[in-house]
Design goal:
With about 525 residues, the protein is α+β, with helices and mostly antiparallel strands. The chain has 21 helices and twelve strands. Strands 1, 2, 3, 4, 6 and 7 form a six-stranded antiparallel sheet that branches. Strands 5-11-10-8 form a four-stranded mixed sheet. Strand 10 and strand 11 (about 345) form a beta hairpin.
């Protein structure tokens, strides 16, 4: 008697078009998703509204601006009277705290702006980032009665005809929407994202108030001196207008899943959006589960190699931006968790970077120029990206920014030398009219987040060896394409550790350059700066 043979289990059909989970609640078929009709036109229409929303107004736009001015003005006044005299660090901490309280009181739009700032380590002052991180989980949830009303209005039918259960308490409550666990009538476990009522009209009023107020803040307070408030409002408007339509977010999910599949990238997983249950204000998606991004202890106990998780995530992000021009634009711990098989589940696609062909190739040339230590290619790439004006003389920019000489080790510099160096770079950038385009800001913000994750996920990894390994990956897997598009063949570029140390200002670190070594260098610099401030 023969033993019956169990046929092999075939992978889900949609894995050929997207980086999805192996156990699908449904199969993604883009041609049979009604909500996708006209999605490109919806995106173009949303983007076209930005100049109108942030136009300069000479008359304050209604009572909303009065409330904003009163609240933020009060915060600045209290800082001026109570914190400013206590020295540089307490002053910035006091101002950051008062601005955070003001943003929290002003509601969803300002909370969203604060959340974006909070994930900008390295782009904004440390005090402001630390304070605004409190806005990520302190947003009051809408009542379930209101959630039900929005869902039934959007879906056009009673809740009970779609779901057998919806958790009354949200899984997470953010500024634009909140997320609830739910079960469909067929027993499928899902997650439902529901937009807050009236948030779209409130965003429009708030952008009007922000665009009127921003020029008044420029150069008047320390935090605003480090970031152009007017440009920040425009960047914010460009990101938030697309977040207000969940059909665009669902399409972002499909596009990023497609990019990951085309690259053969298995490290990241995208939840599947529902074929039918997606509207402007409601998004039903596959429920995934795993470890919180910062719970490394649980991951290690489950046998997950967190250093490899971080390494694979960085490669996947760079691959999407460099080669396909599409990438998740808001990486932070709340939007990522690690599944038990070591893959990263990527959540919340409201902010997604999209590069046109010129900007994608410019970004590719920027990274390849940095890898090859080619300053001319880097500056020309920044011009093509729109970060520097086309008229800026390349050779002069290289000289002014010090790109033609090794980077000084900041731990060997005096406080005055370090400040002079920073002031010189800032002055040069301002003199050329440099700016930070939205897509470049999102990419820098993501790279800074992944860099910061080294502290918990890969503290012992040799960072220089990792850079060399990543360069080798792209040379092996995409060398021919990169050479054709960037004009630099990564297969012929030799990564020299000594050159990397000079380029990163790490000459004083002996042995492996891991997180602890860099942190020790930073502590030395901070101690020296604090001592100099006390003496002055």
């Amino acid at each position: 008697m023969s033993t019956p043979v169990t046929p092999p289990t075939l992978p889900p059909a949609d894995l050929s078009i997207g980086a999805f989970s192996d156990s699908p609640p449904w199969i993604v078929d883009p041609d049979h998703m009604p909500w996708r009709r006209g999605v490109d036109q919806l995106r173009a229409r949303a983007r076209s509204r930005v100049p109108y929303l942030v136009r300069r107004r000479y008359v304050p736009p209604g009572p909303r601006v009065a409330r904003v001015c009163t609240r933020i003005g009060s915060a600045i006044a209290l800082w001026y009277l109570m914190d400013r005299r206590h020295g540089r660090e307490p002053s910035r901490e006091g101002l950051s705290m008062r601005l955070r309280l003001a943003f929290q009181e002003l509601g969803p739009t300002y909370i969203k702006l604060g959340q974006i700032i909070s994930s900008g380590e390295g782009l904004f002052p440390d005090e402001l980032v630390a304070e605004f991180k409190m806005l990520r989980d302190r947003v009051p949830a809408e009542s379930f009665r209101i959630v039900r009303e929005v869902m039934e209005e959007e879906l056009g039918r009673p809740l009970a005809s779609v779901f057998s259960h919806v958790d009354r308490e949200p899984l997470a409550a953010a500024s634009i929407a909140q997320v609830h666990r739910a079960v469909l009538v067929d027993g499928t476990e899902v997650v439902v994202k529901v937009q807050r009522p009236l948030v779209a009209s409130l965003v429009q009023r708030d952008l009007a108030a922000m665009s009127w107020l921003a020029p008044l803040l420029t150069g008047r307070i320390p935090v605003a001196a480090l970031a152009n408030p007017t440009a920040l409002v425009t960047l914010f408007a460009e990101t938030i207008v697309e977040e207000l339509d969940f059909r665009l977010e669902a399409q972002n999910m499909l596009d990023i899943a497609s990019v990951l599949a085309q690259a053969g990238q298995k490290a990241l997983v995208v939840p599947r959006p529902h074929p039918d249950l997606v509207t402007r204000r409601v998004l039903v998606m596959e429920r995934l589960s795993g470890f919180p991004w910062d719970d490394t202890e649980a991951m290690h106990a489950a046998g997950v190699d967190t250093a490899e998780v971080l390494h694979a995530s960085l490669i996947a992000f760079l691959e999407g931006a460099m080669l396909y021009g599409v990438f998740h634009g808001d990486l932070h711990g709340g939007n990522l968790f690690v599944m038990r098989d070591g893959r990263v589940a990527l959540l919340d696609y409201g902010i997604t970077g999209r590069l046109d062909e010129q900007k994608r190739r410019a970004y590719l040339r920027l990274l390849m120029g940095a890898m090859a230590n080619d300053a001319v290619t880097q500056v020309e790439a920044l011009k093509e990206f729109g970060a520097l004006p086309a008229s800026a003389p390349t050779s002069q920019v290289i000289s002014d920014l010090g790109l033609d000489r090794p980077m000084k080790d900041p731990s060997t510099m005096s406080p005055d030398e370090l400040l002079d160096e920073l002031r010189g770079v800032a002055k040069a950038l301002l003199s050329y009219g440099a700016k930070l385009p939205k897509e470049l800001m999102l990419m820098v913000k993501n790279l800074l987040f992944l860099d910061g994750a080294v502290a918990t996920m890969a503290p012992d990894v040799d960072i220089l060896a990792q850079i060399a390994d990543i360069a080798q990956y792209f040379a092996i897997h995409h060398g021919e394409r990169i050479a054709a598009e960037a004009g630099i063949d990564p297969r012929s570029v030799e990564i020299d550790e000594g050159t990397l140390r000079e380029a990163m200002g790490l000459q004083s670190i002996e042995g492996p350059v891991n997180y602890e070594a860099i942190r020790a260098q930073r502590r030395t610099i901070q101690k020296r700066m604090r001592s100099a401030r006390r003496e002055s």
